[in-house]
Amino acid sequence: MADQPGTGQRTRRWRWGWGGWRAEAGRLLEVAALLGLVITQPLLDVLGRSPDFFLFHRADRREILLLVALVAVLPTVAVGLLGLAGGLLGPTVRAGTHTLLVGLLVAALAVQVGRQLTPLRGVPLLLLAGVAGAVGAYAHRRWRAAGRVLRVAGVGPLIFVGLFLFASPTAPVVLPRGDGGAAGTATGNRHPPVVLLVLDELPLVSLLGPDGGIDAQRFPHFAELAAASTWYRNATGVSGWTPYALPAMLTGRYPAQPYAPHYSHYPDNLFTAFGGLYDIRAEESITRLCPPSRCEQPVMPEQGLGVLVRETGQLLRQVTSPQDSRIDPENSYRERTAEEAGIDAAEPVPDDPKFRWDSLNVNQPARFTSFLNGLTPAPRPTLHFLHLLMPHSPWAYLPSGARYEAPEEFPNEGDGWVDLARARHLAQLGYTDRLIGETLRTLRETGLWDQALVVVTADHGVSFTKGAQGRGMDAIRAAADEVAWVPTFVKTPGQRTGRVDDRNWEHVDLLPTIADEAAISLPWRVDGRSARQAPRTEPGKVFYDRPAEPTPISGAVPDPLPPPAPHPLVGTAVADAAPGGTVRIGGQDGFRAVDPDSGQLPALIWGTLPEQVPDGTLLAVAVNGTVASVVPVVAPDPAGRRFAALLADDRFFRAGANRLDLYLVEPAGGLRQLTIS
């Protein structure tokens, strides 16, 4: 029987269509392989090594899995749809579109590889990547072997996802194992309320005055706390990195493994030990040591998939940029304000006319506000815990409580920039002192102060020593007194007067001390010892930059650092001066309409001057005719800036338009006014 007319043509068209779909699937595999190397692998690698990213944003399993799916699948789907759209215009256009995509993705991959293997940055690196992309596109078009290799590599994204879910430090956050360890047992009938406030990145030396005590003039509330508690003045943290330092504090054990700070890795901790006898109200930041069976932490309005996607997009820009990123991810955690979180704060009693209490209500971090709201007496013993990222960078607060904006990529190293970093740190520490005052006031008003065991400390410090800034091994070797020694205050129930204890305290001693005071026996062995026991006889201490690798450190209570002396010009009125050239300024827009009641001030300015102005030249910054700061001109930073000034006293500002003037300070003390461009 003869074929019906047209049947063979339909069969040939069907076979051509099947072949076309096979070719399209091959192209999609090639694109998936390149996208996996350009996007999926670098993002999941960074996120896999940063479980604190998900813990800080309180992401649950579903949100993390959705983010992983978006990272691994969405780019391939989007590019695949683009290819299909090109295919509608014919095979020639489709092939050209695919070759162009291959070339662009090879160029993007070359940027990342070149940044790792060569000193090139910026335009030179982009030019090199462009050449690599063109060569890759030609090779793909010229030789079939290149396409075959890419198609085999198309399984790469699945491998990257598997490593993230099952082998990365973040894996326990996504797929927790276990739900906490054993509860402690009571050793007595008296279990006082426990209030534990852990600050972050606070060196003891930042609080010290010239006499070696707490500087009561600059930090009155820390001094008030010291006057009513036991100050363990020789206390040191265990690590300069919170994901290691805080678990050591709350387990009583030195860091042994590079684990995520998650209850599945640290089942035996403060919360599990106290959970059988105490109600727990915990406000954690970049840890999740309290298991859901012990405490349910409050949900914040801004957490969720949208926040994760936004932050991951910023990470992708850093990963694919031809420039090195100067942003330390750990320094990018910003505590949201109570206003941003929609939390109502109790109106505090104004006892300092210079402090904007209304701004404190607007600006104080949400976690702190929630912590304060929970400080109320309860029928059962209660553990109140707060880890507050203060005065940790990013620095954004003045001592008054007002906020200011600053570029994220300001350098913290080099002449001028280290001094600015310390000034911003001390300003935020002044604000932290206000929060300590709020805590003490709340405890006294609720009656918890006399009843409770109150502990205030910090997990680690930070170095502002030139050439060794930060918390890494260089900082430990050059400035251990700034990185390791931290303030530690313990007020026992009923304690009325303060005292100083200079025993060799290490932060693995924190949990055994709290457990002893709360009459709880810990069901596991600890490395620390309670302050109720005899002090250590050995003077040495250890510090962990990496788990299981203790670094011996020596020393005792650090000497106070010389207080930053203001320049004699600060606070003086300035009149007209002779012209001295031009200056370009960033951060000046806020001077046009200042509203102090908004809680925000233009307290940081930065800019550049002509090359003819020598490094080291002093620059006076005047607000409304009064010198507010004097800073040096320094060598340009990567963004070209040659100076930055923090205007830390908000009394220089007034509502409405404010005048900003800059002057070169001559060696003899005279001023030459700069024209702002």
From TrEMBL:
Residues 370-516 form the Sulfatase N-terminal domain. Residues 318-341, 531-555 are annotated as: Disordered. It comes from the Bacteria. Keywords: Membrane, Transmembrane, Transmembrane helix. The chain crosses the membrane at residues 64-88, 120-137, 149-167. Residues 325-339 have a biased composition (Basic and acidic residues). This is Sulfatase. Pfam families: Sulfatase.
